[in-house]
Specification:
This protein is mostly beta strands. The strands form nine sheets. The chain has an eleven-stranded parallel sheet, with helices on one face. The radius of gyration is 35 Å and the shape is elongated. The chain binds calcium ion. Residues 37-38, 58-60, 62-63, 155-156 line the site of calcium ion.
């Protein structure tokens, strides 16, 4: 059969993501087993013929038995064999030999007659597909309850072929690249169909869990299952067995290993602006072009100075986005200088989707870029600077946006301190990138809906000279990715600001960021109660490089989570400080 050779070369220890595919199975095909009735010439009886029985309860309506020394033997080619027979008050204990070696003794006693029972135990299964001989022998032994006449009974043998699965590789496929973000932390396990199966058992183990059954998948044709909720960075091992109609379980498939990766940004999300469909030169023509834009429009801001831009209720599509692009010399500048920047947003995108803003400069604004109730949009490659509050916002139900490769600096030039060029005065609202909303900002307490600004991806941004957290994800937001950003927070401004990066939402992955902080902490996770639930859970912080600068006033830490240990902090985070301080504040213990 060559049953192990076909794909063996594709399987290696450790991380395996196979890409081979199995032929599609025809729908609704029944599981099959080769049935060899007791009256088949393939069965040899000895030392003489067994007695024949006719009973509609038996498989095929006939069976055989004897009450004196004797045996029945069959040679078969397959993965496993089932001895089908009765259990009864008169049944004795039979001896079973596989390939000439005794594998078990089968006590067929039952208080009342039971028909078509599968009598063999797992020990009588061959260890692999091949040609084998099974022999069942009468013995004089019997259960103490058995009546005087000990019998051995044979109704049929069923020969099972699990070779399509036994010892064969399985496929462990992570979600398609384009779905990595949405369907994270899952793996689809699929395996070859076994004709002799009516169901499959899926087993899993991981570094701290022994092999255990995690799923029974019914149906011979159902050959895939998705295991979700995996932990980031953890390696899991899977194998699958087939189970016959009568309960015989095959030998396992080969084991496959899968390491649940940390999230990666979707590279396809980042692209240059398409060729312009319209070029604008001033604020009026820019906003007019935006208002008139249809999917696929690409608006180029010619170099020059513009007032605030507003994208209101505009919708591109996944294939045909609405793009607003410009060079660094195209400057959106709501205020002429930084002395009195009140209520001026550089680029406001509201109630819109599939919008891209790309490349230009936003400066002298209260807020640089504000996405509100906006989804699937991209803020890419902007220079954002000199804001009285924060740099870039995604709020009020703004989800699935990408904020990437922006350069953000000199935020928090609070208008209450109108001193040109001076920051770090009262910069509580000077975040570099801000996702969601603080409960304190809600105007509908106590019954407002959460600000579900979810699954926003914040990658490759460079953030310096900000007065509040470089990146902050607020309570009520979930599932974002904060990856490979550089946040340099040299200020020792304290006030209400303690860390260079802060997560108060749920389910964020904060991975691979470079954090330099003159504050007490590099990264902080905070639990907040909103209404009747807490936020600040199930976040993962891994592979971040943290540097604490300036005077160290104990206690300082690379990472601190308030109120418990609801989040994962990986031991692959690093901390540089002088003098040395702990990587993570107790009771947090890093996880390998
Ligand atoms: Ca029969």
């Amino acid at each position: 059969m060559g049953r192990r050779s076909k794909w063996a070369a594709a399987v290696v220890a450790g991380v395996v993501v196979l890409t081979v595919s199995f032929p599609a199975s025809p729908a609704l095909a029944a599981s099959t087993a080769e049935v060899v009735q007791e009256n088949s010439g393939r069965i040899t009886y000895g030392p003489d013929a067994w007695q024949e029985l006719t009973n509609p309860n038996d498989l095929g309506g006939t069976s055989r038995f004897r009450t004196t020394p004797g045996w029945a033997e069959i040679q078969f080619t397959g993965s496993a064999i089932e001895w089908i027979g009765r259990k009864s008050p008169g049944s004795g204990i039979a001896r079973v030999l596989l390939d000439g070696l005794e594998t078990e003794r089968v006590d067929r006693y039952a208080a009342s007659d039971q028909y078509q029972q599968q009598l063999l135990g797992p020990a009588s299964d061959p260890s692999g597909f091949g040609t084998h001989t099974l022999r069942i022998e009468w013995t004089s032994d019997a259960n103490a309850s058995t009546s005087a006449a000990r019998s051995v009974h044979l109704d049929a043998f069923k020969i099972l072929d699990f070779s399509a699965l036994e010892g064969q590789p399985i496929i462990l496929a992570s979600p398609a690249a384009s779905d990595t973000y949405a369907k994270r932390s899952s793996v689809t396990v699929s395996w070859p169909k076994s004709d002799s199966a009516v169901k499959y058992n899926v087993y899993r183990s991981s570094s701290d869990q022994p092999r255990a059954l995690v799923r029974v998948v019914g149906g011979s044709n159902n050959t895939a299952w998705t295991d979700s909720g995996l932990e980031f960075g953890r390696t899991y091992q899977y194998d699958v067995t087939a189970v016959s109609k009568d309960g015989t379980e095959s030998q396992p498939s080969l084991r496959g290993g899968y390491r649940q990766p940390y999230l990666q940004p979707r590279a396809a999300d980042v692209s240059a602006c398409p060729s312009p469909t319209v070029t604008v030169t001033d604020t009026a023509s820019a906003n007019a072009a935006i208002a008139a834009a249809q999917p696929g429009a690409s608006i180029l801001l010619a170099d020059g100075v513009y007032g605030p831009l507003v994208v209101n209720k505009k919708h591109g599509t996944a294939q045909d986005r609405i793009s607003i692009c410009g060079s660094r010399h195209a400057i959106v500048r709501p205020f002429p200088d930084t002395t009195n920047m009140v209520d001026g947003v550089g680029v406001r995108v509201q109630e819109s989707s599939f919008i891209t803003v790309n490349g230009f400069t936003v400066e002298n604004a209260q807020k640089g870029v504000a996405l509100t109730s906006t989804s699937d949009s991209r803020v890419y490659g902007l220079r954002v600077m000199n804001t009285s509050q924060g740099g870039i916002y995604a709020q009020i139900g703004s989800s699935d946006n990408l904020i990437a490769a922006n350069q953000i600096s000199h935020t928090g030039l609070d208008q209450s301190i109108p001193v040109s060029g001076v920051w770090h005065q009262d910069g509580r609202y000077g975040e570099g990138i801000y996702v969601g909303n603080s409960q304190g900002n809600d105007t509908c307490e106590p019954n407002c809906a959460p600000d579900a600004s979810d699954r926003n991806v914040i990658v490759w941004n460079t953030i310096t000279d900000v007065t509040a957290e470089g990146i902050e994800a607020k309570e009520q937001s979930t599932g974002g990715l904060i990856y490979d950003n550089t946040v340099t927070f040299s200020s020792t401004h304290q006030g209400a600001i303690y860390s260079a990066l802060q997560v108060k939402g749920d389910g964020y992955l904060v991975y691979g960021n470079s954090i330099t902080s003159g504050l007490k902490y590099g990264i902080r996770s905070v639990t907040t109660e909103v209404g009747d639930r807490d936020w600040g859970y199930d976040n993962v912080f891994a592979s971040n490089a943290i540097t604490l600068t300036g005077a160290i006033d104990a206690p300082e830490y690379g990472f601190l989570q308030n109120y418990g240990t609801a989040n994962v902090f990986g031991c692959d985070n690093t901390l540089t400080s002088s003098p040395s301080v702990p990587l993570a504040a107790p009771p947090t213990v890093c996880e390998p």
